[in-house]
Design brief:
Blueprint lengths: L2 E5 L2 E5 L7 H8 L18 E4 L2 E4 L12 E3 L9 H8 L9 H14 L5 H8 L9 H11 L17 H9 L9
Parallel strand pairs: 1-5
Antiparallel strand pairs: 1-2, 3-4, 3-5
Amino acid sequence: MAQTLDINGKAVVVKADPQTPLLWVLRDELGLTGAKFGCGMAQCGACTVHVNGDPVRSCVMPIAALSGAKIVTIESLGGQHPLQQAWVKHDVPQCGYCQSGQIMSAAALLAQTKSPSDEDIDNAMSGNICRCGAYQRIRAAIKDAAGLVAAPMVAAPAASNDVDGEIAAASGSTGREKSQ
């Protein structure tokens, strides 16, 4: 059965079963691969898109429920959105898998709350899992995109190039003994 969806401002006719999750229509039928499959249970946020301005987990949203809705994907941001620029500036991406869902959740937050507090950010982003643990950088990037001053990040200690010395110190050895 064919259904017309409004995706990124364009009317798109899709020929999938009405119970097909939006994620699979976006990826498999339309070639919009920004939203990722993470869990299939709406718990990780990798598949987040906007439906009528709200962040929605597309892996569990049947297309039958989207008649007349305005669907927006990461592809519509075009790479120059302030959040995308802040993501790069703050070195947010690690593996990158969750990033489109993270950015879409953050974009919905900033569309509704121009100057979000840490609590606002935590609440809006709580459904998005970053397996790499870039949460502090995500918060800093959201604040930067909102024009807010982010709290300074605590830098990790400088890495030492003396790996042999560190191993020797940890083992109690001087590192200078030779085995006979």
